[in-house]
User: What shape does this take?
Amino acid sequence: MSRLVLALTAVLTLVPTAHAQTVVGGSVFTVQGMVGAGRLAANLRDSHGETFGSISGLWANAASWTRQGDTYTGTFLAAPDRGYNIAGTIDYAPRLNTLQMSFTPAAVGASGLLPTQISLGLLDATRLYETVAGGGTQLFSGLDPVPGGVATGGARPATAALPELPQAFNGKLSLDAEGVVVLADGSRLVSDEYGPSIYRFAADGRFIGALEVAASVRPIRNGVTDYSSNNPTTGQAAPSPANPTAGRANNQGFEGLSISPDGKTLFVGLQSAARQDINLSSAAATRDHTRVFTYDISSPDNIRLSGEYVVKLPRFVQNGATLVAAQSELLALSSTQFLMLPRDSNGNAVGTQTSLLRQVEIVDLAEATNILGASFESQVAPGGVLNPAIVPAAKQVLLDINDRSQLNRFGLTNGLQAGFENLSEKWEGLALLPALDPDRPDDYFLFIANDNDFATTDGFHAGAAYNDGKDLDTMFLAYRVTISAVPEPGSALLMAVGGLLLLRVVRRRVGAVSAS
Assistant: This one.
């Protein structure tokens, strides 16, 4: 190595490794790199003897997060969805799972690793239930609601205390859980695809209420609210028409749920566009104008709907066709910003097996139009084209989950690659926790978790064994990220001056080496 190169190396090692930065709404986001992975076995069973429900929604208990040396520990709440349902829905009891994590992150840039930095354990599974007349209890159900709404028993009528709610043929409230958060009073909110609804439960799983939901996303068939998702159980009728004519599309309800760090704003997102905002002749390509709602939760006893915004989902091309990547999770960063996880439907043993779009985006509502109560609230994108009077949310991509250069470092990959494990299709959990590093106070760990669809060759749900034909583990990925404020003009000037001084030092050292 020449003395010139040695001199340059000596100086440049003083400068931290550069990473791509994204600036959104006054914040600078820097992804340092992937630093860990871990899993729970596909055939894991919970305390009720049933197959563990994986991650459709994720909430991190920040109060439990601690660091000892290089190892972090903490607990999470995870919401599984409606149970194993390859051949129609089943009477699976929705529940919330408590997970314990131990995490020793790998060094940024380290390679040749196994995906074992994250160790996970299932601590508890709390089933969700309601009290009924006479003092008894009744579990919620993953069964598809009966078509026809209230008139056919497919919905419970609204009361002074509760909105209309979806109901199965057996009289149980239907719940396809996709998100979970914990309020200041310890109660849990769970977002649901069927309604779409937002249910509220006590810590022991007891149903205590439900939030108001905008009429713009309630599914309509034949002029009435009809909550069927066209996934009837054996012996039950399918809806006609198959999809609603307005409101949320089948299986595209409230898919993301999160609370701002100050505890005052709740975010909930529709998975893709409402039916009235799609061009039905090209539905797969035009369901990209989804809706995100905000609620004022300053007082847990007086939660109110406060905002409704349009967020444009990303498009991609697969086999010559334009498709939309529906969003699978939200994670609030402030009262106006959140992370969003859009993805396609490809992965291990599913679709093309190679995902074409699976990423985390930064979304900012600060300049977006609040359409709640506006004249165009009922339809924001006639024929799939956004109304020009509406300003959608601003967005930037934060990280690409499919990046093989990061995944390969941990023995993982996207698609079929010899010697590496392919990621599964559905990634639906996001959590952000501090690195607790006094030298880097703006550093965090971003955890991304999958929904394995209960896929195991050794499963058991609702009193029956099942074999999916494949085993997909529940997995977590971890990335180290930096989130900091954009420097003030004076600070930016100092940084620029510092850069010039550093450049002068480099030139002087290079000149000295050249002259010697």
